[in-house]
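User: Here's a structure from my thesis project, written as structure tokens. My advisor, Dr. K., wants to see whether a designed sequence matches the one we expressed. Can you design one independently, without my sequence as a hint?
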């Protein structure tokens, strides 16, 4: 981040556009976090066959607060605005509720003639396949992760550049 801040400050002083540096940082953070998230999904799916494997293995106390929110398809600001707090226990409960409601909604559309998405995650030449519901929950988790990384990066750059 320090290198980025230097580039941003130089760009501002030279009257150049600094936003590409922020976007590059956002994309790098997203890719790094996406790989970590996919590996956790892969391991959870590979070792658990019960119907609630996503909730029982990915939205639980041992995960970081950010992971819980991402796997739940949420971000901290949403939870805090809804519940008046962003405590980990609240994030866990709301994330579980959100995934369950998303699963119910997806099931309503399963038999329609809509495009389908099925995700296969490959790690060390072994693969796990997610069904349509799991795939859409994963897409939602990745979207939540990207948005929280994006919002956080712009805020961080603004605050640190002002100093």
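Assistant: Designed independently from the structure alone:
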């Amino acid at each position: 981040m320090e290198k980025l801040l230097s580039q941003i400050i130089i760009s501002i002083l030279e009257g150049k556009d600094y936003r590409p540096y922020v976007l590059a940082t956002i994309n790098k953070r997203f890719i790094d976090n996406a790989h970590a998230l996919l590996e956790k999904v892969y391991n959870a799916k590979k070792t658990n066959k019960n119907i609630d494997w996503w909730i029982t293995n990915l939205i639980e106390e041992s995960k970081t607060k950010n992971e819980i929110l991402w796997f739940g398809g949420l971000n901290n600001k949403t939870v805090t605005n809804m519940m008046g707090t962003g405590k980990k226990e609240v994030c866990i409960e709301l994330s579980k509720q959100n995934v369950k409601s998303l699963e119910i909604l997806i099931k309503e559309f399963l038999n329609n003639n809509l495009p389908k998405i099925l995700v296969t995650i490959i790690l060390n030449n072994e693969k796990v396949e997610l069904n349509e519901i799991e795939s859409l929950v994963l897409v939602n988790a990745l979207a939540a992760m990207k948005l929280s990384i994006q919002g956080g990066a712009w805020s961080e750059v603004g605050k640190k550049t002002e100093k």
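When you compare it with your expressed construct, this may help: Strands lie at 120-123, 126-129.
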